[in-house]
Amino acid sequence: AGSLNAAPADPGWSLPLIYYHWSADAGGSAELATAGRVTLRLDVTADVLIFAPTYVFTKPVWGGQASLSVAGGYGRADATVDATLTAPGGDVVTGSESGSLTAFADLYPTFTVKWNKGVHNSMVYTALGVPVGSYEVERLVNLGLNHWSADIGGGYTYLNPETGREFSATAGITYNFENPDTNYQNGLNAHLDWGLSQFVSEQTHVGLVGYFYYQLTGDSGSGAVLGDFKSRVNGIGPQVGHLFEMGGGQAYFNAKGYWEFGSKNRPAGWNGWLTLVIPL
Fold first, then answer.
1. pLDDT by residue (tens digit) across 86-95?
2. Does pTM top 0.85 for this prediction?
């Protein structure tokens, strides 16, 4: 999501390729009723190549332009956890663990319908998270979530060719099913992605992107030993995009980065995205 998310696309096949990098850390402490205080620190990095073959239908669906895509990924993630336990008597116990993994991630099929009326563009989407990625319950690092998810939402793009101004926003709600190996179910979460840009030429636009993530309901299941553990995080950063011809069709390149802030109960740092949409 981001800029131009609800703008119409050329009918037929395309292949979006996305390189994603994430570097973040998290720290915190909690009082334990019988053991004193535990302090944790987590450092994580991830590099993933995402491929999302997409087909845009020629015939209208519900009066709009429909598309179907399936996104998957392959990459590497590294994580380190440091823990310090301070007992009521003052004794201190420390430990650390590291892990890394290079593997496939889950699959995310998505169905979208877009409508255009002059400078106004709207869209609705529905997506599934299919747990086929690499996962082992005892492993520190996993690229698969080991549970199904369902996401629905909609978006809007204002695109004025005369002024070159563009604004986009996409909002959605995600329902997570229970992880059967841990009996842990993440709560319902809401997310909003936005992009604001100015075309400096007919092909190139520059601007800002951002997102808001907020967990609406608490985690549950017998594995949720820390209670509802609601999380949130926000991000903002620059972007640049460029449209160009490739193989008789229109290709698109976008580079964007986010600095994360306002996080709670989840790692925060920065992430970068390089996207290339290849017309087929």
1. 666 666 667 7
2. yes
